[in-house]
Request: fold
Amino acid sequence: MNPGTLESSSSAKWEQYPMIFVTVGNDFRPFDRLLKKMDEIAPSLPEEVLMQKGYSTYCPQNTEYFDFVPMQSATEYLLKSRLVVSHAGIGTIILCKRHGIPLLILPRRKKFGEHMNDHQLEIAQALEERKDGQIRVLYEEDQLKEKILEHMAEERRDSPADSTGRLNLVHALREFLQTAF
Reply:
């Protein structure tokens, strides 16, 4: 893979499942803390990583990335992901929940200048209290690799090796239903 800005000619590669999709949303404040850590650990992860960096100033060196894409494209990346790593943005949370996509949340924090207040921290805490197995919360970026690998190990335990065809069918049906309705 040639890391760098996602070019339209290389976007076909991301039509394949699986991957880890990282999104920071559309707030005008950077979320470099998440991007730097994901970029650092990306080479050691079992899946390719694609990042949406928004207004962040950090440019990943080990993964492909883009600033923004139309909502339909972002949703397609999300639907094709084995795992989404995200800020605690309610739009991403709702999309992942609606489509059964596992989500790992690192909330933006006021103390790091990532947001105007700590409402994302409050959202993350409320989600953590619900103990939803599909949504995991972490508060420190140093926990990212451990939590991602934990998720991947649990997913392998929960899914027999021969379920790849079933997963591909589920993703194809999901995509069809998204475009048909």
Q: What stands out?
A: DSSP finds six helices and seven strands in the chain.
